[in-house]
Every structure is written in structure tokens, then in C-alpha cells.
Structure prediction request, 291 residues.
Amino acid sequence: MSYNDVITFVFCFLVFDEPWRTIKWGDNEAALQYVRGYKPPTEGQLIRILLHGPDGAGKSSWINSVQSVLRGRIYRQALVDNTSGDSFTKEYTGYRVKKDDGSFYPFVFNDIMGLSKHGGVLEKDIELALKGHMKEGYKFNPESPLSEGDRHYNKNPTPNDCVHVLVCVIPADTLSIMSNEVAQKFRNIREEASRLKIPQLAILTKPDLAFPEQRNVKNVYRSRYMKEKMEKFSANVGIPMNCIFPVRNYSQETNMDDDIDSLILDAMKNILQCADDFLEFTQDQYYCSMC
Prediction:
């Protein structure tokens, strides 16, 4: 058996004959127009999307990737660090995406310090952010949560201050070695978000580093290992499979790629649809008055 025959045999073992989830590769116009034209159901409503996950998961890279797709070029607003083993994000930071006319899209990404087994962002701080009590610029303290006496504590959150979608960002290449302690933190955070009726999704980053067949981005929904890892993560944390989206962030590329865009837009469209579902069934004024 030749080397090429061996590679072909191994590849066939790694992937399904047909994708287990369908996506229109490279045909991004409809999804792009949906995100670009998105308007919340209430005039003046700002959709707040809170990102959380372990150190180095790619939260900041995800923000940059969405900006890149919407602006049509590689964008690098959210700072990313590829050397530190600790969380690079130290403050509660909000990112808006600017349109060509100078206005902004009606959603904001909030980035926070990473979760870790020891240290990292506290669950209490995430709870306060979910309820709208945390102002941007707050510097996270792994030893103690935000207190009511702090200048970054928002005593009277408005509907725009509260989180509408909670997005868990997880790196596929370290998913199999996630500690029980970190998994438990995810479950605790999810339970609090569920109590507040906030929808939760997960973005699975770095699939190409986890599985060799994923270096071709179109194999993401043909990979047997990817599906198995997603199913295990779903069972451990409780997020349904149809709320987990593998993506390739723009990290090495200097030019745009239609297939990478397809995954990013698919995830972003579902995030905004979840926000609409939340706003449709939850009265924000009542929700924030209970925070």
C-alpha cells in the first residue's frame, strides 16, 4: 500500500461520507445581509453579547473575526496575546462594530477575564455582568468580586446594560483536557444565566489545531472526532448540540476567506436570533428591575 493510499484510508476513517450539519460554503450573501441589516425588535435596544471561556480560548479573536467579516478586511481591534499562559483580558471591555456610514451595529460584545482552575474571573463577577451591574472598564480581581461601593458598580441597570446572550468560547484543541473544576464553573454560570432566562451558545475555536482533517475548513461538519467532542462537551456542560458552533477565527490569515466567513456568519446569525427569542419572550424592563 502506497503512502497516498494510507493517507486516503486514514482520512476516510476520520470523516463521514456526508456532513452531519449542512452549511452553504462560500455562499454568504444572505447571512451577511441578515447580520448587516439586523435590527432589534425594540427601537433603541442594544444587544449585549457576553463572551466567557478559559484562558486563550479565542474570545478576542472571535470579536476581531466578526469585525473582519462585516468590514470586509482583516480587523485587529481587540488585542490578542499568543505568548502568555494567563488571561490577556484584564478589564470588562465592550466592542462595537462600526458601519461604513459611521454609525454602529446594534450589538456589543463584552470580553472578560478567562476562566481557569485556579484564579481567573470569578463566577460572582460574571453573574453581576449578566445582570448589568458591571460597568465597562472594571478591572477584574481574582481574589474578590466587584462590590457595590466600587465606581464600576452599576446600581440601576437599564435594559441595554443587561446581557441578552451568553456565549461560551472553548478551544477544540484543549477540550479533552478540560478540568472538572472548570467544567463545573461552566455549569454554574449556565445555571445562573438560565435562571435569568438568558440564552446560551458555545463557539468551538481552533478546530484545525485539534484535528488534522480540519485544516480544510470544509471538513468541520464531516469530522467524526469533532462531532464526538461536541457531544461530550454538550453532555458535560448542558449546552444543546444545536447551540454549539465550530468556527475558525482569523488568526494567521492576512486576507479574507469565504469558507471561514461562512462559519463565522452562521454562528453570528444564530446569536442574534437567540437575542430576538429572548426579547420576544422576556420583558426587559421587568428583567432588569429584578437584577
About this structure: The first helix runs from residue 3 to 14.
